[in-house]
Design a protein that fits this description.
By secondary structure, the protein is of the alpha+beta class. It has 10 helices and 19 strands. It has 2 domains: 167 residues, Rossmann fold; 157 residues, Sandwich (Tumour Suppressor Smad4). The protein is globular and about 60 Å long.
Length: 349
């Protein structure tokens, strides 16, 4: 299959299926030739030019909304404008991990992952063993980690960070056997992850609309949960509407994490059974006054155990993705980490 036309001076020359690896790649070049293996003569003459391989989920909301050719053209234009040569690979969801592992094994290119928090979370077993920094192009709805790394959503700004030289270390935590980079939560947060999955099926044409649809249903339908929490060998039994465990601490005003290598967990316990209580807490968060809010308690630790009493399985949001855990959930800091090109910590988004 071929994609015709040009955008921003860069021509999309071929949409190819690689064999035996079932990966669809949109290869963007400045050269007029349509041969995948022939390098751009200008690139060959300038050995200092950075070679970038962007791996994106072909089924992600951003790609589907823009269309594969338009998405690849926009990304290509931004990287070429920043002085890099680029190959954009659009990969079906079940093959993303294999494509990333294959790309990381090639030392002659910078690998940039285009995706949201959930995409990165599912790739952590590979990225934590990569022994090299990777680039990021945030495509999710929330992009918690991307914002903590200084990404803004402006494609030119984000591409400049992805091909920059500053590397941030991001320590990882585990919930059971699952590695995560930002947070895990249950109660309201688990319900929100469930409603987002439902909304994506019902409203696939609008990521923002599906998000607000899910948020509205969550505010109305989420229930208070009976919880057992064990911290420092002390058990606590209580009812909560939400528990959010963050990997590394938030600052005191925004929901940003200025340090990503603290090896520290913050456990935020929310008691807000009524809709008006939940709206009041949301307003306090927007005003930067959330830490002192009466509905919130915070505990800091390096490990804890959580259990929703009365249920064998619990819906948990892990970096925004809905997972189901059975019985007790062990959450702990680890010595595992990933390195990602981003902004210095004193230059937030």
């Amino acid at each position: 299959m071929r994609v015709a036309g040009s955008t921003g001076g860069a021509r999309l020359t071929r949409l190819a299926i690689q064999e035996p690896n079932p990966i669809s790649c949109v290869v963007a070049m400045m050269s007029p030739t349509e041969h995948l293996t022939v390098p751009d003569p200008d690139t060959a003459a300038a050995p200092s030019r950075l070679c970038v391989k962007v791996v994106a989920n072909a089924r992600s909301g951003t790609v589907l909304a823009k269309g594969a050719a338009a998405f690849a053209a926009e990304v290509t234009r931004a990287f070429e404008a920043a002085g890099a040569s680029v190959e954009v690979c659009l990969v079906e969801g079940e093959h993303v991990a294999a494509a990333v592992a294959e790309s990381i094994a090639s030392p002659d290119q910078r690998v940039v992952i285009a995706g949201g928090d959930g995409t990165l979370m599912r790739l952590l077993p590979i990225l934590s063993k990569a022994e090299r920094p990777i680039g990021l192009l945030p495509l999710g709805t929330v992009n918690l980690l991307g914002k903590d790394l200084g990404f803004t959503g402006d494609v030119d700004h984000d591409v400049a960070l992805a091909i920059g030289t500053h590397v941030r270390r991001v320590n990882l935590a585990r919930a059971g056997s699952v590695l995560f980079h930002s947070n895990m939560g249950l109660g309201i947060l688990g319900r929100m992850a469930f409603e987002r999955e439902e909304a994506r099926r019902r409203l696939p044409f609008s990521r923002i609309l599906s998000f607000f649809w899910a948020a509205t249903r969550t505010l109305m339908l989420a229930r208070t949960l009976p919880i057992m929490m064990e911290v420092d060998n002390a058990e606590r039994h209580f009812h909560a509407d939400a528990i959010l465990v963050t990997n590394n601490a938030f600052d005191d005003e925004t929901l940003r994490r200025p340090e990503l290598d603290q090896e520290l967990l913050e456990v935020h316990i929310v008691t807000a059974p009524r809709i008006q209580d939940r709206l009041a807490l949301a307003l306090a968060i927007l005003r930067g006054r959330w830490r002192s809010h009466a509905a919130l308690r915070t505990v800091r630790c390096r490990s804890l155990r959580l259990e929703r009493k009365g249920r064998r399985r619990t819906r948990v949001a892990v970096d925004g993705e809905l997972l189901r855990f059975r019985g007790m959930i062990d959450v702990r800091c680890t010595d595992e980490f990933v390195e990602i090109f981003g902004a210095p910590p004193d230059k937030p988004a």
